[in-house]
Amino acid sequence: MIDLFDLIDIHQQGQIGGITALQANTDQRVTKQGAAAVDLERRYEHLRLLTMAMWKLLKDRTGATDADLRECVEHIDLLDGKKDGKVTRHRGVMDCDSCHRRILKTATVCVYCGAKNHQGDSFHPT
Ligand SMILES: [Zn+2]
């Protein structure tokens, strides 16, 4: 015969199972975010290496100076009217609302995470 304590045990076991599943899901997301951060750092280091190599080649072959580079960076930064250390985005691209990677505005879904792109969708609330 099942008594009140058995019912409470069954209920608690169900809750523990739910929490365990939630914890496993959280662990998977944390692991995935950690892998994404490692990949981002690897890509950053590769771009940094390429930039340094290109700058050395340019300096060696053209005689350009660091002052020339700073002036050029400032000029490009100001092309959008704001000195904010950023390059103006191309009008045809945007950041995905879900993963924040750069995607085409005309894309119906993000190529990285598969989230729907609601840009230009009049029926989707903003
Ligand atoms: Zn995305």
Care to give the gist of this entry?
The protein is mainly α. The protein has helices spanning 4-62, 66-77; strands spanning 93-95, 102-104. The relative contact order is 0.05.
Give the CA-based shape. elongated
Estimate the strand proportion.
under 5%
Structural class: mainly alpha
Q: What ligands can be seen in this structure?
A: zinc ion
- Oligomeric assembly: single chain
The total count of helices amounts to: 2
Q: In order across it, which strands form the biggest sheet?
A: 1-2
Total count of strands: 2
Q: For the CA atoms, what is the radius of gyration?
A: 25 Å
User: Kindly, what is the distance between the CA atoms of the first and last residues, rounded to a whole number of angstroms?
Assistant: 56 Å
SSE map:
Layout: H1 4-62, H2 66-77, E1 93-95, E2 102-104
Antiparallel strand pairs: 1-2
The chain binds zinc ion.
The site of zinc ion has 8 residues, from loops.
Please give a handful of descriptors for the protein shown.
single chain, 126 residues, mainly alpha, 2 domains, two-stranded antiparallel sheet, 2 helices
Characterize the structure shown.
It contains 2 helices and 2 strands; from the N terminus they run ααββ. It has 126 residues and is mainly α. It has 2 domains: 4-63; 89-126, no CATH class. A two-stranded antiparallel sheet has the order 1-2. A hairpin with a 6-residue loop joins strand 1 and strand 2. Residues 96, 98-99, 101, 110, 112-113, 115 line the site of zinc ion. Zinc ion binds next to loops.
